[in-house]
Recover the amino acids of this structure.
């Protein structure tokens, strides 16, 4: 049986994007994965690791070269490349751009192109201002058709009161639900 094509876009939540790699191996058993990387993921070395090292592992986990530019991401829509597009982790910056219809990066172009086909977009949020500046953007996206969230909660309520993070262990069931056109519940968790 042919596997469903699923795009996996990674944004620069540098402290969490390494958590995605083992989950990709699990997803790859069920889906044909296509990696998409933000400009920051491709180029920024941080205390969490070198960009080149992450990109190598990301592409290896998906089994393909990543889409890394706006020009490469644009055909996702016209060609109907994915049944589902996952953004994991999705930063506050990308959340804000998606909520306001801004398309100025590889990941936002991939999302815009994918959504034009009325196919599901699954967001795994990871932002230090989810209950601050990005609360409004999360609310906007929660009410939009074809946009789903990996359930999320506060990841450090004692030290980072505004910080939200998806429970990445729910990525696969959230993907299955999104492909069925439903939001995995409950979407709001306590601490993660």
């Amino acid at each position: 049986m042919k596997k469903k094509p699923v795009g996996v876009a990674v944004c620069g939540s540098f402290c969490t994007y390494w958590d995605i790699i083992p989950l990709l191996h699990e997803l790859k058993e069920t889906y044909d994965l296509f990696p998409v990387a933000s400009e920051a993921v491709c180029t920024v070395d941080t205390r969490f690791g070198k960009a080149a090292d992450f990109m190598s592992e990301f592409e290896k986990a998906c089994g393909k070269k990543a889409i890394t530019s706006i020009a490469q991401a644009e055909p996702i829509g016209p060609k109907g490349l994915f049944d589902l597009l996952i953004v994991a982790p999705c930063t506050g910056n990308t959340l804000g751009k998606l909520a306001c219809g801004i398309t100025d990066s590889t990941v936002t172009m991939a999302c815009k192109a994918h959504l034009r086909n009325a196919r599901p977009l699954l967001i795994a949020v990871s932002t230090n201002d989810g209950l601050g500046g990005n609360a409004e953007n999360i609310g906007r996206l929660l009410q939009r058709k074809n946009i789903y969230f990996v359930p999320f909660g506060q990841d450090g309520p004692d030290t980072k009161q505004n910080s939200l993070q998806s429970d990445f262990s729910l990525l696969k069931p959230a993907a299955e639900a999104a492909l069925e056109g439903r939001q995995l519940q409950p979407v709001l968790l306590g601490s993660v």
User: Anything to note?
Assistant: The helical segments are 20-28, 39-43, 51-62, 70-73, 92-100, 106-115, 135-142, 171-179. Residues 34 and 64 are 7 Å apart (CA to CA). The chain has one domain: 4-180.
